[in-house]
Two-component system, LytT family, response regulator AlgR
Amino acid sequence: MKVMIVDDELPARERLSSLLESMDDCQVVATASNGIQAVRLAQEQEPDIVLMDIRMPGMDGLEAARHIADMATPPAVIFVTAYEEHAFEAFETHAVGYLLKPVRRERLQEALDQARRPNRAQIGHLRNPATGGKKQARGHICARVRGNLELIPLECVHYFQADQKYVTVRHDGGEVLIEESLKALEEEFADGFLRIHRNALVARDRFGAMEKNAQGGFEVVLKHTAERLEVSRRHVAQVRRFLKSL
C-alpha cells in the first residue's frame, strides 16, 4: 500500500514513517506538513491511504480530506488526532478511520487494514463530513482543471456566477468552472459573499459601487477590475444597505 503522511509536526511525521517502515506491505510515498501540500501530493503520488492530522495551520485536515475526496479515485483517509472527543464528534458514524496520538503500531495496523476497502458511506462522509452542526466553511475552492485539482484561496475569489449546471468562479488568476450549487455556496460562505442576483454571489470585499445602467437597471462595479455585474430588482435594496454600511 502506498501511504502519504500529513502532519505539521516533524516528529509526528517521523514517528509514523518509522512505524510504517516496519510493516512489510506499506510504502511511504510522500509526506506533507499542511493541507495544501497534501492535496497536491495526493494528485501526484496517488496514494492508497492518507494518514492526516486534523489540526494544522492554513488548511486543516478536514478541508484537505474534502478536496482529496474530489479526486477521480480518492485514497482512504485515516485521521490522526490528539483530541479523542473531537474525533468521536466528527467521525464516529462514517469514519474511514482515526488514530489517537501517540500512535501505537497495533492500532495503526488495524486502521490500515480497515481502510483498505472504504465503503460508499465512508467516501460520502469525506465529501460531506458530519461536524456536529454547521459545516465549517472552506478556505479554498477546489476545481478540476485539465484533469487536475486546482486550489483557489477564497480571498482571491471575486464572485460566483451560475450558468446551468456549472458555477463560474472568477478569481485573481482568471476563472474556473465547478459543479456546486450557488445556494450551497451562499450558505457556506454567507459571511464573505452577498447575493446580488439569482445567479450571482459577490465577495463583500470586492464591492466598489452600484450604478444605474442605460436600461435603467442596476449593476455592481467591482473594485480594481471595474467589472460590472447585474443586480436584480429584488436584491437592489439589500446591496444598497450593504454599501451604506461600508
About this structure: The mean pLDDT is 88. The first strand starts at residue 2 and ends at 6. Residues 152-245 form a domain with the OB fold (Dihydrolipoamide Acetyltransferase, E2P) fold (CATH 2.40.50.1020). The chain has two domains: 2-127, 152-245.
